[in-house]
Amino acid sequence: MEKGTNLNSGIELGIYTLGELLYDPFTKKLVSAKQRIDEIVESAKLADDAGLDVFGIGEHHRLDFAVSSPHVILAAIAQNTSQIRLISATTILSTVDPVRLFEDFATLDIVSNGRAEIVAGRGAFLESFPLFGYNLDDYDRLFAENMDLLLKLNENEHITWKGNFRSELKDAEIAPRPIQQRLPIWIGVGSSEASAKRAGKLGEGLMLAVLGGDPIHFKPLVDAYRNAGLKAGHPSNKLKIAIGSHGYISKTSQQAKEEFYSHYINYFKSFMRNGRQMKISKTDFEQMAGPNNSLFVGSPQEIIEKILSQYELFGHQRFLAQMDIGGVPFSKVAKSIELLATEVAPVVRRETKKAAK
């Protein structure tokens, strides 16, 4: 039986990480990949113990990121947790063999007793194309073909299939099979309406990155997803939406902003598009963290209000926050996770449960 969001309990809340390796802007120290991965596993344990619903890990193939194989780290996490859903965030589908990907996550599903999910995307970075011998000119065709194969693998123990970018399959046995009837698959989308429509047409979940600006600007993507899904004949309850955003929580609004500002700038300049060319003053940052923008930084009450405001706009089933960015010390990340779980989640679940009735 496939597990997933239960609206009888309100929307799901969780956290995700990309595992980047950046110098702490205050101490100028750089954590090792070993320490970063240990802290990622510990974050997942904290989130599980505190009752959060989802934990995600991204994939990158560069020296300034610690994780290139999310399923391996998620398997380690599975042995140290009992309830939390374990997802990729995201898998770069264009440059991975779908058969290997499915088998890896089916194995993770068994190890975790039915908690594995795949978020498939095209990736914000392109280093995996030359690394694994793929041509950037095939960027979209690779994704479309690999998604077609992945979905077929999810449904069939034996498969016959032929494409353009990998060897033909002739009554191939696909093993092991997951504990869930099928692995939940989400399509990661940034700003592409075409990608949102594709997710809807396929009837898979939409994982939408809402990382800046007024959330209203992302509403057309959600509408395009739902319209495409309904037009393709998928029931509305199958069309699930997850929102991923940058976030950080402290006891007070001012404390959260003071603790997070330098780390956010550190992250923004290193990885966000046009980040090196943009200068973000503290006044700018205050506006970015304001009630009408998508940066989830503030007190528990402010985060509650923002999540519920977006819920009214999108009607989504999940909210995930990326908290450990820009070299935020693990001790502060841990406190932020605790506040999300103990002060934010109960209110958000209660209010969204009411709204779903």
Automatic annotation (TrEMBL):
Keywords tagged on the record: Monooxygenase, Oxidoreductase
SUPFAM superfamilies per the UniProt record, alphabetical: Bacterial luciferase-like
Gene3D superfamilies found in the cross-reference section: Luciferase-like domain
Entry-linked Pfam families: Bac_luciferase
InterPro entries reported for this sequence: Bact_Lucif_Oxidored, Luciferase-like_dom, Luciferase-like_sf
Domain Luciferase-like residues, every copy: 32-313
PANTHER family documented for this protein: BLR5498 PROTEIN, LUCIFERASE-LIKE MONOOXYGENASE
Protein name: LLM class flavin-dependent oxidoreductase
Organism: Niallia oryzisoli
Source taxonomy: Bacteria, Bacillati, Bacillota, Bacilli, Bacillales
